[in-house]
Amino acid sequence: MKDENVLIPPAMKIRQTIQESMTNTLPEKEFNPEDVDVVEVNIELTNLGKNFHNYRILNLCDIHLGQWINPEYLEDLIDYVNTLNYDLATLTGDYVSYVIDGYDASLEKSFKKLKSEDGKFGVLGNHDHWLGADKIRNIFKNSDIYDLSNDAVTLIRKNEKLNLAGVDSYTVCADNLDKVLPKLEKDAPTILLAHEPDFAQQSFQTGKIDLQISGHSHGGQFIIPKFETTPFRGKKSIKYPVGLYELGNMFQYTSKGLGTNSFRIRVNCKPEITIITLKSKIRQKIEIE
Ligand SMILES: [Fe+2]
To answer: Which residues pair with 274 in a beta bridge?
Structure first.
């Protein structure tokens, strides 16, 4: 964390106007499950209790509502997500793009509709800050989404614990791990939500994070076949632009996200809904006679 000042890129509304004129040159995009990857990732965490074995975490990010993704698309997407099998839902930022007015009500409606048995937890991205962090936090509040910006909670299953933490956007220097670390239960594994994947370099340094979940990169919107990586790497997604990485004992997972930047083009890089299944090293003994 450096300072709390948010540098807003100039002419957001002009960019949205250009965006809308581009949108009008293409047919309206309807949600189709076949156009989206439901990416299943298994991650084995050190010290994860056996009662969290096979615990399933859904992650959605980079919706960029109003920039190609329209309210109807988002509603249909959430209806589809609600049919999937997961225990807890996480949201890792950039829910809007260049304008929020006119889209806030539909974002809230869809977030309210998102089901999750063990709760909904989110952090903010750079675009959310540029357009008004308070507005997004209010939408979270009205949709029963727990704001994990520089905060942590502990999930408990039969006396076993799992920390779920989050940091606010690294791009706008709102991240503050110093506020998070004292809230972590000792001896329990920790999952950190951080919009920008390259924040992993900071979280790894603490030695206290087992898995960081991020978005922000959109997978570069172009993935080189066979290499499964992208040459298009924006700020704060240069080192970990797409997929699963290991930094010592810590995992970093970067989603390809749902929306697109500037041009509605994704090559070998479908929008992504992520489901991470946690695996415990502690397995119950099965007695065989
Ligand atoms: Fe972002």
So the answer is: 39, 59
